[in-house]
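Lab notes, practical 5.
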Amino acid sequence: MDIKIQVPTDLSEIPLYQYQEFHKVLDVNKDADYSDLFIQEKMLQIFCGMPLSNAIKYRKSEVDQVTDIIAKTLEQKPNLVQSFQIGDTTFGFIPKLEDITFGEYIDLDNNIGDVKNLHKAMAVLYRPIKQKIKEKYLIEEYKGDNYHEAMIHTPMDAVVSSMLFFWNLGIELSKTMIASLQEEFREDLTQEQISVLSGVGINQFTLSPMEILPNLKKLQN
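Output from the prediction step:
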Protein backbone atom coordinates (compact mmCIF):
# COMPACT_ATOMS: atom_id res chain seq x y z
CA MET A 1 0.00 0.00 0.00
CA ASP A 2 1.23 3.46 -0.92
CA ILE A 3 -1.46 5.31 1.05
CA LYS A 4 0.17 7.24 3.90
CA ILE A 5 -1.65 7.59 7.22
CA GLN A 6 -0.92 9.35 10.48
CA VAL A 7 -0.84 6.89 13.37
CA PRO A 8 -0.84 8.47 16.86
CA THR A 9 2.02 7.19 18.98
CA ASP A 10 1.55 9.60 21.88
CA LEU A 11 -1.60 10.64 23.75
CA SER A 12 -0.81 14.27 22.98
CA GLU A 13 -1.62 13.50 19.33
CA ILE A 14 -5.18 12.37 20.13
CA PRO A 15 -7.82 15.06 20.81
CA LEU A 16 -10.50 14.31 23.38
CA TYR A 17 -13.35 14.36 20.84
CA GLN A 18 -11.81 11.39 18.99
CA TYR A 19 -11.65 9.34 22.16
CA GLN A 20 -15.23 10.35 23.05
CA GLU A 21 -16.36 9.20 19.59
CA PHE A 22 -14.57 5.88 19.97
CA HIS A 23 -15.92 5.35 23.48
CA LYS A 24 -19.46 6.10 22.25
CA VAL A 25 -19.13 3.43 19.56
CA LEU A 26 -18.01 0.89 22.15
CA ASP A 27 -20.70 1.93 24.64
CA VAL A 28 -23.54 1.74 22.10
CA ASN A 29 -22.37 -1.74 21.12
CA LYS A 30 -21.39 -2.92 24.62
CA ASP A 31 -23.87 -5.82 24.53
CA ALA A 32 -22.87 -6.89 21.05
CA ASP A 33 -20.50 -9.73 20.25
CA TYR A 34 -17.46 -7.67 19.26
CA SER A 35 -15.37 -8.80 16.35
CA ASP A 36 -11.74 -7.80 15.99
CA LEU A 37 -12.54 -6.42 12.56
CA PHE A 38 -15.22 -4.07 13.89
CA ILE A 39 -12.91 -2.67 16.58
CA GLN A 40 -10.02 -2.29 14.17
CA GLU A 41 -12.19 -0.60 11.56
CA LYS A 42 -13.38 1.99 14.08
CA MET A 43 -9.85 2.60 15.36
CA LEU A 44 -8.63 3.29 11.83
CA GLN A 45 -11.60 5.52 11.00
CA ILE A 46 -11.54 7.59 14.18
CA PHE A 47 -7.87 7.86 15.11
CA CYS A 48 -6.30 7.74 11.63
CA GLY A 49 -9.08 9.30 9.56
CA MET A 50 -9.04 6.31 7.23
CA PRO A 51 -12.25 5.35 5.39
CA LEU A 52 -13.10 1.67 5.09
CA SER A 53 -12.55 1.86 1.33
CA ASN A 54 -8.85 2.46 2.05
CA ALA A 55 -8.57 0.15 5.05
CA ILE A 56 -9.63 -2.93 3.09
CA LYS A 57 -6.65 -2.44 0.75
CA TYR A 58 -4.16 -2.99 3.58
CA ARG A 59 -2.77 -6.39 4.50
CA LYS A 60 -4.28 -7.79 7.70
CA SER A 61 -0.84 -7.84 9.30
CA GLU A 62 -0.46 -4.10 8.61
CA VAL A 63 -3.86 -3.33 10.13
CA ASP A 64 -2.95 -5.40 13.21
CA GLN A 65 0.27 -3.45 13.58
CA VAL A 66 -1.43 -0.05 13.32
CA THR A 67 -4.26 -0.85 15.74
CA ASP A 68 -1.80 -2.34 18.22
CA ILE A 69 0.13 0.95 18.18
CA ILE A 70 -3.10 2.89 18.83
CA ALA A 71 -4.10 0.54 21.66
CA LYS A 72 -0.72 0.95 23.34
CA THR A 73 -0.95 4.72 22.91
CA LEU A 74 -4.32 4.82 24.68
CA GLU A 75 -2.81 2.92 27.62
CA GLN A 76 -0.11 5.52 28.32
CA LYS A 77 -0.03 7.10 31.79
CA PRO A 78 1.64 10.50 31.33
CA ASN A 79 2.81 12.88 34.02
CA LEU A 80 0.54 15.82 34.75
CA VAL A 81 0.34 18.15 31.76
CA GLN A 82 0.65 21.71 33.07
CA SER A 83 -0.34 23.48 29.85
CA PHE A 84 -1.33 22.93 26.24
CA GLN A 85 -2.44 24.99 23.29
CA ILE A 86 -5.72 25.01 21.38
CA GLY A 87 -5.53 27.35 18.41
CA ASP A 88 -3.93 30.57 19.60
CA THR A 89 -4.90 30.04 23.25
CA THR A 90 -2.68 28.41 25.88
CA PHE A 91 -4.56 26.65 28.67
CA GLY A 92 -2.98 26.05 32.06
CA PHE A 93 -3.82 23.62 34.85
CA ILE A 94 -5.22 25.18 38.04
CA PRO A 95 -2.12 26.52 39.84
CA LYS A 96 -3.58 26.34 43.37
CA LEU A 97 -6.06 23.55 43.96
CA GLU A 98 -6.80 24.82 47.44
CA ASP A 99 -8.39 27.87 45.82
CA ILE A 100 -10.94 25.85 43.85
CA THR A 101 -14.45 27.20 44.44
CA PHE A 102 -17.42 25.13 45.50
CA GLY A 103 -19.06 25.77 42.10
CA GLU A 104 -15.97 24.57 40.26
CA TYR A 105 -15.82 21.50 42.48
CA ILE A 106 -19.46 20.64 41.76
CA ASP A 107 -18.99 20.93 37.98
CA LEU A 108 -15.80 18.88 38.16
CA ASP A 109 -17.41 16.20 40.31
CA ASN A 110 -20.46 15.97 38.04
CA ASN A 111 -18.45 15.51 34.84
CA ILE A 112 -15.06 13.90 35.49
CA GLY A 113 -16.50 10.38 35.75
CA ASP A 114 -18.46 10.56 32.49
CA VAL A 115 -16.53 10.23 29.21
CA LYS A 116 -19.10 12.14 27.17
CA ASN A 117 -18.76 15.10 29.56
CA LEU A 118 -14.99 15.05 30.06
CA HIS A 119 -14.59 18.28 28.05
CA LYS A 120 -16.71 20.01 30.71
CA ALA A 121 -14.41 18.70 33.44
CA MET A 122 -11.38 19.88 31.44
CA ALA A 123 -12.92 23.37 31.26
CA VAL A 124 -12.72 23.44 35.07
CA LEU A 125 -9.20 22.05 35.35
CA TYR A 126 -7.61 24.02 32.50
CA ARG A 127 -8.22 27.74 31.76
CA PRO A 128 -6.64 30.26 29.41
CA ILE A 129 -3.39 31.62 30.84
CA LYS A 130 -3.73 35.38 31.17
CA GLN A 131 -0.31 36.15 32.66
CA LYS A 132 2.92 34.18 32.89
CA ILE A 133 6.26 34.91 34.57
CA LYS A 134 8.83 32.17 34.04
CA GLU A 135 7.22 28.94 35.30
CA LYS A 136 4.40 30.65 37.20
CA TYR A 137 1.16 31.77 35.62
CA LEU A 138 -2.35 33.07 36.31
CA ILE A 139 -5.42 31.61 34.66
CA GLU A 140 -8.80 33.14 33.88
CA GLU A 141 -11.64 32.81 36.36
CA TYR A 142 -14.00 29.93 35.76
CA LYS A 143 -16.78 30.93 33.38
CA GLY A 144 -18.96 27.85 33.25
CA ASP A 145 -19.56 26.62 29.72
CA ASN A 146 -17.51 29.34 27.96
CA TYR A 147 -14.86 26.86 26.87
CA HIS A 148 -16.82 23.62 26.64
CA GLU A 149 -16.74 23.59 22.85
CA ALA A 150 -13.03 24.39 22.70
CA MET A 151 -12.13 21.73 25.26
CA ILE A 152 -13.22 18.85 23.05
CA HIS A 153 -9.82 19.48 21.44
CA THR A 154 -7.96 18.88 24.72
CA PRO A 155 -5.06 16.49 24.04
CA MET A 156 -5.60 13.13 25.69
CA ASP A 157 -2.33 13.29 27.61
CA ALA A 158 -3.80 16.24 29.52
CA VAL A 159 -7.10 14.42 30.03
CA VAL A 160 -5.59 11.17 31.30
CA SER A 161 -2.86 12.82 33.39
CA SER A 162 -5.33 15.12 35.14
CA MET A 163 -7.64 12.18 35.86
CA LEU A 164 -4.73 10.20 37.26
CA PHE A 165 -3.81 13.25 39.32
CA PHE A 166 -7.26 13.34 40.92
CA TRP A 167 -7.26 9.59 41.35
CA ASN A 168 -4.11 9.93 43.45
CA LEU A 169 -5.13 13.07 45.33
CA GLY A 170 -8.92 12.84 45.28
CA ILE A 171 -9.48 11.95 48.91
CA GLU A 172 -7.15 14.72 50.07
CA LEU A 173 -8.95 17.20 47.82
CA SER A 174 -12.31 16.12 49.20
CA LYS A 175 -11.08 16.51 52.76
CA THR A 176 -9.72 19.97 51.97
CA MET A 177 -13.03 21.04 50.43
CA ILE A 178 -15.08 19.74 53.35
CA ALA A 179 -12.76 21.39 55.88
CA SER A 180 -13.21 24.68 54.02
CA LEU A 181 -16.98 24.26 53.95
CA GLN A 182 -17.10 23.47 57.64
CA GLU A 183 -15.14 26.61 58.44
CA GLU A 184 -17.15 28.87 56.13
CA PHE A 185 -20.66 27.55 56.76
CA ARG A 186 -20.51 25.83 60.14
CA GLU A 187 -22.98 28.31 61.63
CA ASP A 188 -25.52 27.46 58.93
CA LEU A 189 -24.97 23.74 58.46
CA THR A 190 -26.09 21.04 60.85
CA GLN A 191 -23.73 18.20 61.63
CA GLU A 192 -25.97 15.88 59.61
CA GLN A 193 -25.61 18.10 56.51
CA ILE A 194 -21.83 18.19 56.94
CA SER A 195 -21.74 14.39 57.11
CA VAL A 196 -23.65 14.17 53.83
CA LEU A 197 -21.27 16.64 52.18
CA SER A 198 -18.29 14.58 53.32
CA GLY A 199 -19.23 11.88 50.86
CA VAL A 200 -19.57 14.15 47.83
CA GLY A 201 -17.15 13.38 45.05
CA ILE A 202 -15.03 10.79 46.80
CA ASN A 203 -16.42 7.83 44.85
CA GLN A 204 -15.73 9.39 41.46
CA PHE A 205 -12.36 10.85 42.36
CA THR A 206 -11.00 7.63 43.83
CA LEU A 207 -11.88 5.58 40.76
CA SER A 208 -8.91 4.93 38.55
CA PRO A 209 -9.35 6.82 35.27
CA MET A 210 -8.10 3.69 33.56
CA GLU A 211 -11.47 2.14 34.49
CA ILE A 212 -13.03 4.63 32.09
CA LEU A 213 -10.70 3.71 29.25
CA PRO A 214 -11.63 0.37 27.66
CA ASN A 215 -9.15 -2.46 27.91
CA LEU A 216 -8.34 -2.49 24.22
CA LYS A 217 -5.92 -5.39 24.48
CA LYS A 218 -8.71 -7.68 25.67
CA LEU A 219 -10.95 -6.49 22.85
CA GLN A 220 -8.29 -7.25 20.27
CA ASN A 221 -7.32 -10.68 21.62
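Observations recorded by the TA: The chain has ten helices and four strands. The CA atoms of residues 76 and 92 lie 21 Å apart.
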